[in-house]
Design brief:
The structure holds two protein chains of two kinds. Helix content of chain A is about 45%, strand content about 15%. Chain A is of the alpha+beta class. The termini of chain A are far apart. In chain B, about 35% of the residues lie in helices and about 25% in strands. A five-stranded mixed β-sheet of chain B has the order 1-2-5-4-3. Chain B has a two-stranded parallel ribbon with strand order 6-7. The chains are: A alpha+beta, B alpha/beta. The interface of A and B includes residues 55, 90, 305 and 308 of A.
Chain lengths: ~375, ~190
């Protein structure tokens, strides 16, 4: 009997996927109960790089926690910076100069493009295509260079401060960014010709890994996962923060609910992020990049505060509880892929193993963010 | 999305307190306080309205009762002082301060916090429920929102809150044999 045929008898076996497996993007372990090549049950096992960031938050001052935020979602660290500084600014009532908000948006959107490029390369690698990864890393390298020149780091950024950003940009950054936008726009058709229109990719992704809109709601999926299921939800539009309302951009939404739809959402988002960066550079106001009179020791008034931002993977929310002292009383980090991955067990039931890996890749997992 | 209608429905199920909070300052629109036994009803209301689950977490309020009592004592002492001064100014005998009955301190609480949001409209609803620290039990909502399964396991890891009816309440992020709860304020490694 072929291994692809579902067996009549209940003969199943347990297959361990990970924790050391290239297709699980880090140290995620999935305990699979298999019937031949078909998945009967899948149980993700988390916690291999759990670092208890929330406890660390309770043990240091508000400002001392800032570098931690770059070490959860290391692919879109600036969005995590943004979420945390925003909630503290909301709590402590700190106003941010407009130029600083523009710089935050420019750098965070560049970071989003670099995150999507890495996802693109790694996703195609999961599906068995090696070379697109090298093209994507070539482009991503330009963003890392640009961000390094202004933030001082290449991956685990800690660029935002309460009340602004730590460093102003210069002419080289503006010129380099404009050149990069042009370069990536020229390269996108190549990506689409090489990969998107590839018949093998289409067969691997179309109608594979369906996630219904109702399932998104029940599991709290956000970001490209819910936008690939026809839900028009983007925190930048839904709950506007920073200076996003001043830019003209679209939220790509696809109705097909399959892995291809999630792929297309991210590919379209690259162009939308470039549009935002371009407009922000055009409109960039003059002025200071740090608010004056930000207290050295921050003591937000008692109470709890929530702030959400749109990261490359979905809605990242921070809930802080302040007791009026110089350290957070409680710091809750709502990681988007934690919720996005929680639906994997239900979504992959009955799927072939390689299709389940395509579904997993389309969720764009970053394990340090899930485990925190 | 009618915020007032949702508020009304939550009041009908007997929520202890439903207040609209200042969204720009707080980041959430409705703040709902329920008893643990009302939780399922409150979450069902949000489910019927099409909300999605954002997160479940806890807060340990260890020392809150002592702080409240201290605050009340300080207030009473300040009032007594004002009265005594007023009496002295009027040339009267200062009133004898009556000893205040100090019973046992009520037990401190753990709070479970549920965040819900809506895809179509901006309406973050925060549901809170409080339980005593010695027996922290609250019904599981994973039957209504399967996504709560992991959030509740995580909260159980960190706070030891027992989600009654949860199908698989084993450590999610902590090691599988973990019997400690690191986010409790009296946790010592």
């Amino acid at each position: 009997m072929s291994a692809f045929a579902k067996s009549e008898a209940n003969e199943t076996f347990v297959l361990n996927l990970g924790p050391q497996h290239p297709a699980t993007h880090g140290v995620l372990r999935v305990k699979l109960t298999m019937d031949g090549e078909y998945i009967v049950e899948a149980e993700p096992v988390l916690g291999y790089i759990h670092r208890m960031h929330e406890k660390m938050g309770e043990n240091r001052t508000w400002a001392q926690f800032l570098p931690n935020t770059g070490r959860m979602d290391y692919l879109h660290a600036l969005a995590y910076n943004h979420g945390y500084v925003s909630v503290v600014e909301r709590a402590a009532g700190i106003a941010v100069p407009e130029r600083a908000e523009y710089l935050r948006v420019i750098t965070a959107e560049l970071n989003r493009v670099s995150s999507h490029l890495l996802w693109f390369g790694a996703f195609i690698l999961d599906l068995g295509g090696f070379s697109p990864l090298l093209y994507a890393f070539d482009d991503r390298e330009h963003i890392l260079d640009l961000l390094e020149s202004v933030t001082g780091s290449r991956l685990t950024y800690c660029y935002f401060r309460f009340g602004g950003v730590y460093n102003d940009i210069d002419e080289n950054f503006v010129a380099g960014t404009r050149a990069f936008i042009k370069r990536l726009r020229d390269r996108m058709p190549m990506y689409h010709n090489l990969v998107t229109k590839n018949i093998i990719l289409m067969t691997r992704l179309k109608e594979i890994g369906p996630i219904s809109a109702e399932m998104c709601r029940k599991y709290g999926a956000t970001g490209p996962v819910c936008r690939g299921s026809g839900i028009n939800f983007d925190v930048r539009k839904h709950e506007p923060y920073s200076v996003y309302p001043e830019f003209d951009f679209e939220v790509p939404v696809y109705e097909q609910c399959d892995s291809m739809a999630r792929y297309m959402v991210r590919m379209d988002e690259i162009e939308q992020s470039l549009r935002i960066v371009e407009q922000a550079l055009d409109k960039l106001p003059d002025g200071p990049v740090m608010a004056e009179k930000v207290p050295k020791i921050i003591k937000p008034p008692k109470g709890d505060y929530y702030h959400a931002v749109e990261t490359a993977r979905g809605s990242f929310g921070v809930r802080v509880v302040s007791d009026g002292s110089n350290t957070p009383y409680r710091l809750k980090l709502r990681a988007p892929t934690f919720s996005n991955l929680s639906l994997f067990g239900e979504a992959c039931q009955g799927m072939l193993l390689p299709d389940a890996l395509a579904l997993m890749g389309s969720l764009d997992l970053v394990i340090p963010e899930i485990d925190r | 999305m009618n915020r007032a209608a949702i508020k009304q429905k939550l009041v009908v199920i007997g929520a202890e307190a439903v207040s609209e909070s200042d969204y720009a300052g707080k980041g959430f629109a409705l703040d709902v306080q329920v008893l643990p036994e009302q939780l399922i009803a409150a979450v069902s209301v949000l489910d019927a309205e099409g909300f999605f689950i954002e997160a479940v977490t806890g807060v340990d309020w260890l020392g809150e009762q002592a702080a409240l009592r201290k605050e009340a004592e300080a207030k009473a002492a300040a009032e007594a002082k004002v009265k005594a001064e007023a009496a002295a100014a009027a040339g009267e005998e200062p009133p004898v301060a009556e000893p205040v009955e100090q019973g046992e301190l009520p037990e401190d609480v753990l709070e479970a916090v549920y965040d819900f949001n809506h895809y179509d409209a901006l309406c973050r609803v925060t549901i809170r429920t409080r339980m005593v620290r010695s027996a922290p039990e609250v019904p599981s909502i994973s039957q209504i929102y399967p996504g709560a399964n992991w959030h509740e396991r995580e909260t159980h890891d960190f706070f030891g809150i027992n989600f009654v009816g949860h199908p698989y309440l084993v450590p999610l992020l902590l090691p599988e044999d973990a019997d400690y709860h690191p986010l409790l304020k009296d946790f010592r490694p």
